[in-house]
Structures are given as structure tokens and as C-alpha cells.
Amino acid sequence: MFTPKAAAYFGLSTILLALALTFQDWQLAALILPIASIFFLSNLWGLPESVRVRFDRIVEPSESFGEDDVRVELRLENRSGARLGNIEVHDILPENLKPDKGSNMIHLALDPGENEGLVYKFPSPPRGHTPIGPLLVRARDPLGLYMVEEKLASDTVAVLPKPEKVRGTELRPGHLGPWPGTLPSRTTGHGSEFYSLRAYSSGDDPKRINWKATARYGRLVLNETESERVTDVMVVLDTDVAFYESSERELFERGVRAAASMASLLLRQGNRVGLVLQGVERGIVRPAFGKRQERRILYTLAAAKPGGSVLPTGYVVSQLARLLLPSRAQVVLVSPLLDNEVVDGIRQLTVDGYSVMVVTPTPTVPVNYGSEGEKLALKILMLERKNLLLRLERFCTLVQWPENASLSSQLRMAKVRRIRPLVH
Amino acid sequence: MRSLVLLVKLQHLGLAPWILFSIPSIAVLELQVPLIVGIATVGVVGMVLGKRRLVLLASISLLTLLILGKVTIDLQDLETPDTGMLVLQFVAILFLMEASLPVVQYEKDLAVLGKRNDELSKHVATRLAGWLRSQLYADARLGIVSFLTSLGLLVVGSLAGVGIGHLAVLAVFVLAAVVALLFLLTYRREPETTGPRK
User: Fold this and answer.
1) Residue B62 near residue B15 (C-beta atoms within 8 A)
2) What pLDDT is attached to residue A424?
3) Residue B132 within a domain
4) B141 — contact with chain A (CB < 8 Å)?
């Protein structure tokens, strides 16, 4: 296509022609000749009849925990059969990304059949989905009168939230799946925890004989263990962190890390885990097992952004739990608990027989305040939150996670509620 | 290569006096010297700071003044300049302006690389230098051939001796020029190939 520069030259020719006719001055008309020559010669020596440039982009790593630099390789090949002397390559990056090695924008000339690999690197972006591209490749004639542009769609670099190393957590859901796992099922079977004694019967494994009890009772007595199974868990991340501007980001990131850590731990233990992202950015990952599911959950969590949702968290959680989980399964809600409405939703879940664990990153109170009013407002907010925690503690397991503590230790300290279903 | 880039960078120091002293002083209200200083300063500052708009402003001002000078000559019935010299000045302004654009772009791209010393940045710098060389060579070739073609056509035109003042001939000339320009603009152009590839 013609560029604006070609239009400008055409306009100049028109002006010269108009002046030449007005003043009947052939010298002015003669100035059109160089412009016409430029167009002709640009056609002759410029772009070939068909511009064919094959190009591709390789991004490594496309998913990471933000520890490694991102390497982008742009591969170009001139398949036009003629030299392309004026090629512009621009891989568009978000403003916060600046390559520290190589460049994402370059002008170059390519001989026929020449291959070029342009590499640039930049430090890993923060958690999230970062678009790389689109890649624009523009071939022009030397003066830039004609241009052929091709575009390559953007790729995404996903920087996933890094799960914390959490040793274990005690869950007591009513529903257990048939597969072996780590949750005590209150029935005998294969497991590691002692459950009861029973008389030996033929065919039993002699290794399980309890010799002390055998001596006491005068007959062979066997140790029985509690079978351990898996359950279905839905991890819900509440992204409404409207608290105090300077602390919001940290509070939110702690919530994302908590959700990632819980999902990762529960999947490692063999449970079927799903995720609900509740807030301005919404997302659902249906419950499933395994490594791939962990990747899916972390990928969804990478897209999480702070901000409240139109629908109240309590309502969404209670509705989705019924839709995605078997009855009496486990719900893990990660929320800063800054909204009172969440209590009703959780209460409803426990009434329906679900076991609920609430992991709440504790907001860090700022050292300095903008005004006395702000200080007072924050104090009231924290008191309300404390009240909310007391109410929640009565019917669900509550894990508070302050800024400087490890999530693992907080989970170990949490008191597990052995809940009998509440009645309306 | 460096000397060529330097020549392009300092082009307005030479072009401004050459153009302004060749046009009648009445066309610029006897303000030749201030205009020379102004245009040369804008052009050189634009080149040094890599401001494409300033460079274009200086070059387009020179182009405008050249045409204004010729119009003034027509209006005032002054002595007409040599046609070859007029075309040479016109071509010189155009092609030095065109040459300045890749130089500005080259310096801008190099500035993005900064003082990085890694292999990837060095490779980019090498490719950029190759591109600039190729661009300046292509511009020079286009400029020279275009000037010679124009002169050739002028000689052929003067041999034909057409009465340019004649209205019918003038109309045919305009029509032919339009047809020729349209042909030149569209000849060997492929259809547009735009849009996403994947």
C-alpha cells in the first residue's frame, strides 16, 4: 500500500502542476519530473512484485514463577527472491517491559533466502499474563513510498504465583472419595494412623499383630489402621481487598499465594481440587486431579487482579459449591474478610453440610496515616473484622496469616472444627 | 560511512545558504541571513537531537522557499534561473531530506541499545549499521539517477519544441502527465497483503 509519504509527494506534484499552469511556467512543471522519476525508480528498484517474509516468534519460558529472564527469538526468512533493503521489525511490548539485551525494534536488510534470528531478553515481568507482541514486520522500498505490512499475533508470558512450601493441613470434610489419600475416613482400612484392635483371623498379615495386646488378652490381636482417602475441594479466592491503598497490593498478593499454596498442597495430597476466582476478574477451574490441574489453577491465579465483584462473595461461593462439588465436600475460602456479607454465605454452606476452611491474610496496619479520620476509620474496620472472625470461628476452621509468618506454621496452629451440620 | 552520516547531519549548513542566496531577496523580504541561520539551526539541532520533525521542518522550509522564489520571479518578471540548477537544488533538498530520515532512525535505534555490550545488542547494532549503509546507498543511487533522468527528459522536451503557451497543447500535456503519474504509481504494484497471519 502507499504510505502517507507517497501521498505527500503526490500532493507536491499537484501543487507544482497548479503553479506551473497558473504562471505558465515550464520550469515549475519541470520540477515534477524528479518526483515522477522517484516513483518510477522506487517501483523498479524497490520492493519485488511479491513480498514474502516468513516470520515466527519463540518465547522461553512461556510460563514461569518469575525467577528467570524471558528470552524472545524472532525468526525471519526472506522468501521473496529479491533483496529487501528496508525491513522494520517491531515486537510490541507493554510499557513496563524494556529489553536489557538485544532489541525488540530493529531495521534491517535481508538478502534473498537469508535467515535472521533476532533475540532479545528482558527480566521476568511481575505475576500475571503479559502479552508479547503483536509482531509487526513492514517491508518498504528505500524511500518508503510503498509498504507491505504483516502481523503475527501476540504470545503470552504467564508468570505464575509461586506456591509456598506447606507441610500439611487438617481437613475434616464429610464427603470422601473412594481413592486413597491423606484424609482420615473414620473407617478401618489402609492407612498410617492407629484406629483400633481386633482379633486375628486367618489370612491377616502377621506383621500387623500387636504382640503386647496379644500377651495381655491371651489370643492373637491385630492393629487396625484408619483408612485415608481423598476429597473434593474448591479453593475460592476473594480478590476484594479494598482496605488501605498502600497495603492493598501486598494483602492481595498474599491472598493469591495462599490460594496457590493451598491448591498445590491439596493436589499433591491426591485430592480433586477446583478454583473459583471471585472479584473484578472472574474465573472457574472445575475440580480435577493431578499436575495438569495444578498448572491450570496457577495459570488462572496468574490472571487475578485486585478488585471487588458486583455479586457478593458469600452468594457466589454457596451457589458454585452446589454446582461444582458433591455435597459435604470441602471449601477453602481465601479472603481478607473485609466484607461482612461473606459470613452468611459461609454459614449457608455449613448448614448444607460443607466443611469450610477460611484462610485470611491479615491486613498489615500502616505505620503512618494520612489523617486522624483515616486512622479512626481503619480502627473501626479492624474491629469489625475482628468481630467477623469471632463469628466465623464458631462454624468453620479459621487460619489467620499475618505478614511475617509462614503459612505452613499458621495452618498447623489452626483448630479444626469438627462440625456437626447446623440446622436452620 | 561516518563521513557520509556527518555530511547528512550537517546538510542544512550548506543547503540553506545555497538555496536562499539563489532566490530573489524580495521573495523573503530581504531576510535571507536570519532565515539561513534559523533553518540551519533547526536542521542541525534536529539532526543532533534526533528530532525527525525538526529535520523535516527545515527541509520542507527550504523546498517551500525554492518554489516561492520561482513564483516571485514569475510575478516580478525577474531573470529566470538555469533550469538544470533549479532541478539540482530541488533534487538535492529532497534526497538529503530522505537520507536524513534513516540516519535519525539509526541513531534512535542505537540509543535504545544504549551502552550495552552483550552479544545480542552488538548483533542488533551490526544489523542496523548494515541497514543504514544500504539505505544511504539506495538513496544516493535514486537521487543521482532521478536527477539525470529529469535532465534527460528536459533535453528531449526542449528538442521537441512544443509551444507550451498553447491552451490545447497545455491540456494534452496535463492529461498525459496525469496518466503518466497514474501509471508510474500503479505499475507492478502487488495487491495489499495485510492482516494477521495467525
Assistant:
1) yes
2) 44
3) yes
4) yes
Rounded to an integer, what distance in angstroms lies between the CA atom of residue A411 and that of residue A407?
6
Total domains, chain B: 1
Residues β-bridged to residue A356: A331
Assigned fold of A232-413? Rossmann fold (3.40.50)
Residue type at A71? R
Q: What is the mean pLDDT of residues B29-54?
A: 93
Query: What would the pLDDT profile of B137-149 be if each residue is shown by its tens digit?
Result: 999 999 999 999 8
**B16, B39 Cβ separation under 8 angstroms:** yes
Assess B144–A contact: CB distance below 8 Å, yes or no: no
Cβ pair A34:B145 closer than 8 A: no
User: Can you give the residue range of the structural domain that contains B167?
Assistant: 2-186
Chain B residues within an 8 Å CB radius of A93: none
Q: Which set of grid coordinates corresponds to residue A424?
A: 436452620
Among residues 147-186 of chain A, which lie with CB inside 8 Å of chain B? 148-153
B168 touching A, CB under 8 A? no
Residue B171 lies in a domain: yes
Percent with pLDDT over 70 in chain B: 83
Cis preceding linkage at A48, omega within 30: no
| ipTM computed for the complex | 0.81
What average pLDDT score do residues A357-380 get?
83
How close, in Å, is residue A28 to chain B by CA atoms? 7
| A101 to B121: CB separation less than 8 angstroms, yes or no | yes
**Chain A residues touching residue B109 (CB < 8 angstroms):** 103, 105-107
pLDDT tens-digit map of A288-312: 999 999 999 999 999 888 887 777 7
**Option in B83, B142, B146 nearest A30 (CB):** B83
CATH number of A53-159: 2.60.40.10
Cell of A143: 524511500
* Residue B168 placed within a domain: yes
CB A292 within 8 A of CB A193: no
C-alpha to C-alpha distance for A84 and A51, rounded to whole angstroms: 8
If you average pLDDT over residues B71-78, what whole number do you get? 90
Enumerate residues 18 to 77 of chain A having a beta carbon within 8 A of any beta carbon in chain B.
Answer: 19, 21, 23-43, 45, 49-51
Give the per-residue pLDDT at A422: 47
Give the E-state strand segments of A209-281 in sequence order. 221-229, 232-238, 272-278
Instruction: Please tell me if residue A295 touches chain B, with a CB cutoff of 8 Å.
Output: no
Provide, as residue numbers in chain B, all residues whose Cβ is less than 8 Å from the Cβ of A102. Answer: 118, 120-121, 123-124
Q: pLDDT class for A188, splitting at 50, 70, 90?
A: confident
Please check whether residue B61 lies inside any domain of the structure. Answer: yes
C-alpha distance from residue B21 to each of A336, B36, B69 (Å): 77, 9, 10
Q: Are strands A221-229 and A194-199 parallel, antiparallel or unpaired?
A: antiparallel
pTM higher than the cut 0.80: no
Q: Does residue B112 belong to the interface with chain A, where contact is any CB pair within 8 Å?
A: yes
